[in-house]
Amino acid sequence: MPGKAWILLALTSVAAAGLAGAALGEDTGLYVGGSIGRSNERFEPSAYNVSADNTGYQVAAGWRPLDLLAGEVDYVGFGRASGGVNYADTYGVGLSALGFLPIPLVDVYGRVGLMNWRTDVTSPFRGFHRTGTDLDYGVGAGMHWGSLGARVEYERYDISATSTMSLASLGMTWTFM
């Protein structure tokens, strides 16, 4: 299923599940979560000439002091991009601010932050790595049932030497009351 169709299906599923049940939950407080989805990596041909559509994942911890605002730290793994005999593994740690729209039953949010990333590149004759800190941003939607939450999210990462670095994911959160 194409990436945009997958995101639309996931958003629709989360919304339908929320309307079918009572979305009574604790929206504020400390939370942890994890998600898995489709990562898309396209490195510039002049840099590494590798690309991939992989399974990526994210592990997060955050604090939502207000209904409209949260801060989150996360670890993201994008999987392995390859091109011929060359391959690259990219992962990073990010810090983001999330802003929520005041919509009943559904958490719709945008995020913006910075990610400290590392790409390890390996070829038959040489291996090296690149690091940096760059912008990440995205949108998402979620629901809560008590402390348990579900969310769907799309994030883009402006990582040096890439034309595309993104993660579309579906995940769960647990809020500590």
- The share of residues in extended strands comes to over 45%
What integer is the average pLDDT? 85
Number of domains as seen in the coordinates: 1
Q: Can you tell me the residue ranges where pLDDT is under 50 for at least 5 consecutive residues?
A: 5-25
CA-based shape: elongated
Number of strands: 8
Task: Please give a quick description of this structure.
The protein has 177 residues and is mainly beta. The chain is built from one helix and eight strands. It has a single domain (3-176), classed as Beta Barrel (Porin), CATH 2.40.160.
Walkthrough of the structure:
This protein has one helix and eight strands, in the order H-E-E-E-E-E-E-E-E. The chain has one domain (3-176): Beta Barrel (Porin). 36% of the residues are buried. The protein is elongated, with a radius of gyration of 17 Å. Residues 5-25 have low confidence and may be disordered. With 177 residues, the chain is mostly beta strands. An eight-stranded antiparallel barrel has the order 1-2-3-4-5-6-7-8.
